[in-house]
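# step 3/5: fold
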Amino acid sequence: MFEKLLISDLNLDGKKLIIRTDFNVPQDEQGNITDDRKIKESIPSINYALSKKAKVILISHLSRPKGEIVESMRLNPIAKRLSELLGKEVKKLDDCLGEEVKSEISKMQEGEVILLENIRFYKEETQNEENFAKELAGLGDLFVNEAFSASHRAHASVVGITNYISQSAAGFQLEKEIEYLGKTLKNPKRPFLALLGGAKVSTKIGVVGHLLDKVDAVLIGGGMAYSFLKVKGKSIGSSMVEEDKLNIVKQTLIDSEKFNTPIYLPTDHVVAKSIHSTDHVMIAEEIMQDWIGVDIGPKTTSNYISKIKEASTIIWNGPMGIFETDAFSKGTFAIAQALANSSATTIVCGGDSDAVIDKLNIEDKITHVSSAGGACLEFLKGKELPGIVALTNK
């Protein structure tokens, strides 16, 4: 059971409610939003607050302006789309703090919504600077964290603000994320399968280690697989390897035997001369010198799909190859489709995996799709997330 206050536990009547959202959505070169899922995920909490006569003040970041004002990273397109989704005006301010912001908030009526400017225009945000957090807290009466994907960061608008406001609660989407992930790890229906991919073994090796005594098998693909294969003495050509992580990879393979949890690795590969060109592409079981592994091969794909069919609970994080290139995407897309066809509880954990789900338009066939990459990984590593710890206990 979630032991922190929820938005539904708060008395919101007439209160100024600060909601930390994550509107860090992708945009094209013209500033058009290309995927509004994160905005949509905030709607239930915002609508709930409005129904309880709160005055809603929204805080979000967008991209990484590194403490400077970057015109292309302003939140104006976010406010426009959010207004459309809510069916009411969202007033966008051009700053996060200052007299003008305070003046606009002081004039708010019950049921109104204000969106502050990109919080990361201030370097004090990522520094979790005390006075900055205190000023943010002074804008409202209560605080709700609806940004699970930012909750692994000890930033001012996620953690610091909670020190200077009377009550801090979880929004509905954050609660959903924690409940799904927590329940899955604590009491999964078995067989329980972890499917991990992506480029770097350094970002996932902690997850593999933490899951070994919880899952029944780990399936590995993507660039991270080649560090494992190198440790096992396989030919990997010029494929990506993190040399400084090979010792921990070796220990992880030893631990997998200790826990009797098999780690499955690719047995064949789609290989190319360059990740930037599809002129020279072939299937190989051994990767030759000067060739690069860019996707799992058909035998591996078939084997992994058979494991997926046998599983009752599956967590997936990270693509099986460089799926952005069509010639290198077959393994990843086949795995995603297998998850969609599965009768298992399926949880897709952020990173690029959610982009694959979107591209194939199969979100309705996945039990839970998290848009949080880093936070999801930290949670799967068994780490406490600062943004969750900071909330008020029930």
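# step 4/5: annotate
The chain has a mean pLDDT of 95.
# step 5/5: archive (pending)
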